[in-house]
Amino acid sequence: MDGLSKIKELIKPLLAQEDIELYDVSWQQEGKNRILQVAIMRKDGSMDIDTCAAMSEKISEKLDEVDMIASEYFLEVCSPGAERELKDETQIRDALDEYVYVKLKNPKAGMDAVKGYLRAYENGDITMEYMDKAVKKKITIDGDNIALIRLSVKI
Q: Residues with Cβ < 8 Å from 21, sequence gap 6 or more?
């Protein structure tokens, strides 16, 4: 188990006590500063700054208690954002019927990206419903052709 996996397993119980889900844990570098970024959200996808601050305190205390990170770092607890990337199968399934943006590795139907509603996820492939001019269309995209999939804010 690598360092990030150990950190995830350490903080998941703290979050579960508050009915909060762990979205992602990653190391970021800003100049000379090493930052442990912990993205959290409620089951409905929302998050607020007060909850982030409270969870930051709890996570910081737990990390200090077990002292598993040898080098100096800053802890940042945040929301994954309204246009968060969908990084795994669970996150993609949770986004069914949501408005998403998909960047393709290879163009399909003359498009290198698609914005629309995620309607199905099966065996790694996705089906989307999107508008082309004033016509509603569907497209199925092979999972191997997805470079990026994220939630999108519809304007």
A: 15, 40, 41, 42, 43
- Could you list the pLDDT tens digit for every one of the 155 residues in the chain? 678 999 999 999 999 999 999 999 999 999 999 999 999 999 888 899 999 999 999 999 999 998 888 889 999 999 999 999 999 999 999 999 999 999 999 999 899 999 999 999 999 999 999 999 999 999 999 999 999 999 999 88
Domains of the chain (ranges; CATH) run 3-78 (3.30.300.70), 89-151 (2.30.30.100)
